[in-house]
């Protein structure tokens, strides 16, 4: 199983970023996928998840601002993040139930 997140970077508060996750080595189209994040000095927390058929779930703090999506034909998972806040700064990871891939850093500051 390999999961590689990308698309992170620096953005000002109110800005947007789109994260991507390339998946390989497993049946992505049948796998429940999630985004999690680890803010500096804090525990990892759930951000959003999506079932194999596209049912999405979000942490309350990101509802209405973040959108998770997937392309099963390309084995890709996405996270569109809008109206970013300083508290969204973290390393973001895509994950299955048992595997967390390499993360991508998101920095939100002015």
Describe the structure.
The model has no long low-confidence stretch (mean pLDDT 97). Strands 2-10-9-4-5-6 form a six-stranded mixed β-sheet, with no helix packed on it. A hairpin with an 8-residue loop joins strand 9 and strand 10 (104-108). It is mainly β and 110 residues long. The chain is built from no helices and ten strands. The N and C termini lie far apart (37 Å). It has strands spanning 2-6, 9-11, 17-24, 33-38, 45-50, 56-58, 66-71, 76-81, 90-95, 104-108.
Estimate the strand proportion: over 45%
Main beta-sheet annotation: 6 strands, mixed
- Total of helices: 0
The overall strand count is 10
* Rounded mean pLDDT score: 97
Low-confidence stretches: none
The end-to-end distance, rounded to whole angstroms, is 37 Å
Overall 3D form: globular
List keywords for this structure.
110 residues, mainly beta, 4-stranded antiparallel sheet, globular
Task: Give a short synopsis of this structure.
The chain is mainly beta and 110 residues long.
Write the layout of secondary structure elements.
Layout: E1 2-6, E2 9-11, E3 17-24, E4 33-38, E5 45-50, E6 56-58, E7 66-71, E8 76-81, E9 90-95, E10 104-108
Parallel strand pairs: 2-10
Antiparallel strand pairs: 1-3, 3-8, 4-5, 4-9, 5-6, 7-8, 9-10
């Amino acid at each position: 199983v390999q999961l590689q997140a990308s698309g992170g970077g620096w953005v000002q508060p109110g800005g947007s970023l789109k994260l991507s996750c390339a998946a390989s080595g497993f049946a992505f189209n049948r796998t429940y996928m999630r985004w999690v994040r680890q803010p500096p000095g804090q525990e990892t927390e759930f951000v959003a998840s999506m079932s194999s058929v596209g049912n999405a779930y979000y942490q309350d703090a990101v509802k209405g601002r973040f959108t998770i999506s997937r392309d099963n034909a390309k084995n890709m998972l996405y996270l569109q993040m809008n109206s970013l806040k300083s508290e969204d700064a973290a390393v973001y990871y895509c994950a299955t139930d048992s595997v967390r891939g390499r993360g991508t850093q998101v920095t939100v500051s002015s």
